[in-house]
Specification:
Two copies of one chain form a homodimer.
Chain A lengths: L4 H13 L3 E5 L3 E6 L6 H5 L12 E4 L5 H10 L7 E4 L20 E8 L8 H20 L3 E4 L3 E4 L2 E13 L3 E11 L7 H4 L5 H5 L5 H21 L3 H10 L6 E6 L2 E10 L5 E5 L4 E4 L3 E4 L1
Parallel strand pairs in A: 3-4
Antiparallel strand pairs in A: 1-2, 4-5, 5-9, 6-7, 7-8, 8-9, 10-11, 10-14, 11-12, 12-13
Helix pairs in contact in A: 4-7, 4-8
């Protein structure tokens, strides 16, 4: 098949628009000098050694409202476990309880995974803890930053939020149909809006270095798969152990607000279901499934 | 406004096609002799005294795949709590774990309710127990049959299944977005297919009488609302008490299969979360969220 010069030139122009730096040389033809840090499926897949996450579809958006919303639609249509939905930008990035997640274009990672684990709905909180461990491990292995997990789903560095997790479930009473695990991770964000500046940070801010987002997402998928396989084959115990090492909450005095009620007391433990056990100041014990924690 | 004779005649023909028996009398005009037992919104609403269920939309289908599927779509689009979806027939009526629910046209009640309770996902099983109580109470008050609940979601008469409940959830880890409570209730079904004949029954078979389905669904909505309000205002305790009175499981020797594992032992209790507490034959206790029970 012969391709015209003009047709090649059109393709090259398209790549340049996407941020690829391509030189043309009279003798050698076109030379790729620099690839942009885009989260394109092919870029993510390159060198990815996972067997579940990212092996099937990696659905890419340059912009979407929320990767979790897109992933839910795909899962409703039967998309298999391991499907990855990624966007360069979210116009309606969501955190827990309908809160906003700041999602500027090409600065962070906004990615949702479809899970179809054979567990019952009361075990769903375990996947949030698993995700927190995977994110923390990916951050630690790439950046060497000190990372801690704030129960149930915030990843902190230097006391500030560097990543957040949003877990959504579709289930029958018996069995989970699917779980969507959304991650918002601040990678190369240089600065944040006034209302969150005090509480938010990014890898760039903490390390002074730009990290290729492709490398970060690949490491996340790798760590996710590692812990997800441990969960499936061995159980939750090893994940909980690692979670506790990474968390700063056990033994701490906290106030936690959950489904309208507020409790203040000392965290006794995270039990084997991932549920927080709080002893309030009157000595009464509470099992808390999820909620907003204020460290005292 | 004047309406032509021909236009009126067309409307009357349409009603006759739907099963209305209408006589025409030269002097008096048209006389309604008999209304068919259809679950049309207007028929259900007539005399309905509820404030939540059936006060807003009652979405009617003469045929659909599954009322739960339709209700989920509506809930995804923001349909409020109390929305009722009803169909005369289901072509793909579903029970737990993708099992089929026999749904012949105009013989049973196939109805789904949208709930948006302010509870956390681990409390969802409570709504299945609540639904079982509402169904049992409606059956008892109308038919005087002896009705029992088989944990978690079957309603039995004379040892046979007369109704089934399918609960589906959309949730974040923190909070339930919505719950769909589907009910399949055999009302005027004269007979069942071979494969379920031994285990299935209907109000007609048990009482020898045809009950208007409209009356049955109205009673169900009334009972549902009663218990749902108790749940919201007082809590789960009174519902659990009534559930235990109606259930035949406590103290019984059973085998229960849940998420791939099987346990045999004696039922100690249903705890305040609606979870079954089983002491197996080795003396070990198990908390069982949901599963298939075989009474021994």
């Amino acid at each position: 098949m012969s391709v015209s010069r003009a047709a090649i030139w059109k393709h090259i122009q398209k790549l340049r628009e996407d941020g690829y730096v391509i030189e043309s040389s009279p003798k050698k033809g076109y030379i790729l000098k620099k690839a942009p840090d885009l989260l394109l499926s092919n870029e993510i897949r390159e060198g990815l050694t996972t067997e579940i996450f990212g092996r099937g579809d990696i659905v890419y958006f340059s912009e979407t409202d929320s990767t979790n919303t897109r992933a839910k639609e795909l899962a409703d249509q039967g998309a298999p476990e391991g499907t990855v939905v990624v966007s360069e930008k979210q116009t309606d990035g969501r955190g827990r309880k309908g809160r906003n997640w700041f999602s500027p274009s090409r600065e962070g990672i906004y990615v949702s995974l479809i899970l179809r684990p054979g567990i019952s709905p009361d075990e769903a909180p375990k996947t949030t803890l698993l995700t927190a461990v995977a994110v923390a491990e990916a951050l630690i292995s790439l950046t060497l930053l000190k990372v801690s997990i704030k129960w149930p789903n915030d990843i902190l560095t230097n006391g500030k939020k560097i990543a957040g997790i949003l877990t959504e479930i579709r289930a029958e009473i018996d069995a989970i149909d699917y779980i969507i695990v959304g991650l918002g991770l601040n990678v190369n964000t240089p600065d944040f809006p006034d209302d969150i500046r005090e509480n938010a940070t990014s890898i760039l801010i903490e390390t002074g270095k730009h990290f290729p987002r492709v490398t970060v997402i690949r490491e996340y998928l790798k760590q996710y798969e590692r812990y997800y396989k441990i969960f499936g084959r061995i159980g939750f115990e090893p994940i909980l152990t690692r979670w506790k090492e990474l968390s700063n909450i056990i033994g701490r005095q906290i106030t936690v607000e959950a489904t309208g009620t507020k409790h203040t007391g000392q965290v006794q433990d995270i039990d084997r279901d991932g549920v927080l056990i709080l002893k309030d100041n009157a000595g009464k014990y509470h099992r808390i499934f999820s909620g907003d924690v204020i460290l005292m």
